[in-house]
Design goal:
By secondary structure, this protein is an all-alpha fold. Helices cover 80% and strands 0% of the residues. Bound molecules: tryptophan.
Length: 445
Amino acid sequence: MAASRGEFGSRLGFILAAAGSAVGLGNIWGFPSQVAANGGAAFVFVYLLLAFLIAYPVLMTELAIGRFAKANTLAALQKLSTGAVSRCLSSVFGYLGVAVAAVILSFYGVIAGLMLAQCLTSLLALFAVEPGLLSGTGASIFFTLVFMVLTLAIVLKGVSSGIEAWSRRLMPMLIILLLLLIVIVLNQEGSMLGLKAYLVPDISKLWQGELMLSAMGQVFFSLSLGVGTMLIYGSYINRNESLPELGAWVTLVDVAIAFLAGLLIIPAMYVAMSNGVEIFDADGKLLASSQLVFVVLPELFKSLGSFGTLLSALFFAMLVLASLTSSISMLEVPVATVSEQAGLGRKRAGIVSVCIIGSLSVLLILQGEALFDLAVTASTEYGQPLMGLVFCIYLGWLWQRQSLLKELQQGSPHVADSLFWRLWPAYVKYICPLIILLIFYSSLR
Ligand code: TRP
């Protein structure tokens, strides 16, 4: 079976694919909204800190387990298992990862579908066409399913000519679009106030527990941790590559893009405010984050006339691209697992997965907000930290140290003398589980 598994064709290809997974709505929409809601620059500071203190070690855990096993989550955890109990639990956790990935993709697809509709609306508006048809429940279902089919089409082409090739194309486009939009927004009136709010921290807000916890949740989601996405991407990495370096690149790109997205959205909010758009409610709190992207920004674009319409099309196109490189990484979890475990073939596994996940999306759209929020909370606040904990425990407590070292030495022969090797294994064994338990505890309250 090993011979038929896909593999990333190059180092850059992996970095772009994994960074493509990491960079998504979580960076461009989630991060700036959290910054705005949590004291501006203070949140940015804590986020950066946690990205390297928590996200990077957990990301490395997934990558190492994945490349060691060269298999999907379930089979990988089984390979690390030491007895009947852990082997049996591996199946449970393997399928739990699949379930969490499926739920995340089901709500992610709905939001990405809305972005797609917005993008098309703006494009049509450029040609003075005003389609009345692109909003409402029917349209939402339609665009979600279109987005799912796009995701499926890429995943079905396989690891290197699908996921890798498309990430290589889409990621540079995304970065160019983002930079372009930043330059434009920073040249608008009012943007400098936003820049200040973004970059000058209010020290008094720095060490609030709640802020730390939101930042931790955000970091987990943003780096696509705790469902097996990165584990499976790790399983496609060639043994000549240095894992600690690859992981560092992915973390850096993810953090950099979140930072850039903040540089766009926070000033854009203040520009909108100086154009008369409300961004805070009566209590001085920021409007809900969904309103930020779907109300505040469109108002801003509108106030800029037809140039704004063009910007709007570009902005939503950027969000669709970012969502697509993330959604393919989510779909890869069920596809790899089902095709390898049930011997089903990628095509069938992909079609079956998308049918199930697409139906779940439709259900979420039809049932309304309560179920949607439940799906988001259950998967991101409970599912992801729990699975993150599982990965840390398997690596820290079940994987023999010598075997782990041998895996890391492939591609980085001098790793045994590095600071990374001295700190990381113990860190994953003791500190990460503790931190994750803390997140978990706080979300249970
Ligand atoms: N990290 C992506 C974002 O920031 C979303 C994502 C992709 C994801 N794959 C994932 C989140 C797996 C959780 C688990 O938008």
